[in-house]
């Protein structure tokens, strides 16, 4: 297959004008460096982070203008002269922070996020370091595999990055966003009990189908943290909370957590000014941990687990194309989606 010289791509120009900062452009197909691979991208997906970058509220380093989005999957079509890990035809998924290979994240790695610090995946072809991609699970399509980069790895890191999830433990997940649904699937595959919260009967049914042992409607039950605690053995509390709401949910997460449990802070969908003091960590004897995606080593573990358990990410039924990617941003911003919003790339 001949590699063209030009391609289409979405670029984020700035962070003042909301989604009007997104520009669909023609660009050169990048040349592959000696330690790089050229990937023909076939699928991408969006994260909440992608929506807030052009809105100016993303808290991590940016280098604008930048090719949008972190999540991508596709096929290697060219390898640099010194690349040893890959060959043409290999199916791969992007690593979110290109510099985060193993162990804790550091400042340099935190600046290497695709679609923020480095050019991302909303384009037809991209060059990446040979250590900036991982093999794609054999059981997933490119649009499914693309969802693993950010939401999948964030969720895996929450459950395995600090203290390894054990069979028989209890995990509390909030809502039906990408990270929460991955955490539900990964926890069930590990033999854990899962308590999920949601606001609708339709979503409750979906959570049960995915394997949730208990579902609590947080609109009907304002004290869902206590309710979750009551569902655990001897009312001891849950071992892990996947905390995505921030201001709107943190109090209940503290009410649910077990002594020595971990609350993983993933997002702040409900606001950024929680009423709880950091001293709650002492009175509750728990750990509250901010999770910033994760390293390549954890991503490789996750891919192996996805294959072994034949886990398929939950992808919203409305799939977009590269040409209609701006509509995907609008669609996700209106919270019309369930699971991951995917984009196919021809």
Automatic annotation (TrEMBL):
InterPro entries: ADH-like_C, ADH-like_N, ER, GroES-like_sf, NAD(P)-bd_dom_sf, Zinc_ADH-like. This is Enoyl reductase (ER) domain-containing protein. Residues 17-343 form the Enoyl reductase (ER) domain. One of its GO terms (molecular function) is oxidoreductase activity. Signal peptide: none annotated. Pfam families: ADH_N, ADH_zinc_N. It comes from Lasiosphaeria ovina.
